[in-house]
Structure formats: structure tokens, C-alpha cells
Design brief:
The protein contains two helices and five strands. With 82 residues, it is of the alpha+beta class. The strands form two sheets. A three-stranded antiparallel beta sheet has the order 1-3-2. A two-stranded antiparallel ribbon has the order 4-5.
């Protein structure tokens, strides 16, 4: 299993959780809301389902991709919020 972490504006939280559920995440949860309006959404996925979830996240178009530590995928908001 792998953990996929998406850091995005809180308004996308529900959409990201739904993406996790529809793309095979075993579990998904949100961290607390940051002062700058961002939230971390963490998703646990099996190896077999990971690529489908990553493809769906990349297809969203509102994110830039950055890889970290081989286990965590951080999706950075393009509008400079990070």
C-alpha cells in the first residue's frame, strides 16, 4: 500500500475524497484546515489501484505534481497558495 497526499484549497476537499473513493482508495481522510485555507487529503491505495488514482489526479488540471520520498504525492495548487 501507498499513501497519496494532496494539499489543496479546502473547497476541493469533498471532490478529492470522492476521487479517492472512486479510484480504489482503501481509506481517505483530511487533516485540519490550515490558516491559509489549505487542507491535506491523505489516501491509502493498493499498488494495483495507485496508478488509476494518480492518473485521475493529474487529469484534474488544477494541480502541479511534485513527488516526495517515493511514498507521498503532493499536489501543489497552481495559484501560488503554497
Amino acid at each position: 500500500m501507498r499513501v497519496v497526499e494532496v494539499i489543496a484549497p479546502a473547497r476541493l476537499q469533498t471532490h478529492l475524497l470522492e476521487m479517492a473513493r472512486t479510484h480504489g482508495a482503501v481509506d481517505a481522510w483530511c487533516g485540519t484546515l490550515n490558516d491559509d485555507g489549505r487542507v491535506a487529503v491523505r489516501m491509502v491505495v493498493l499498488e494495483d489501484e495507485r496508478q488509476a488514482l494518480l492518473d485521475a489526479l493529474l487529469g484534474k488540471g488544477d494541480f502541479d505534481l511534485a513527488l516526495g520520498a517515493g511514498l507521498v504525492l503532493a499536489i501543489l495548487w497552481r495559484n501560488g497558495a503554497l
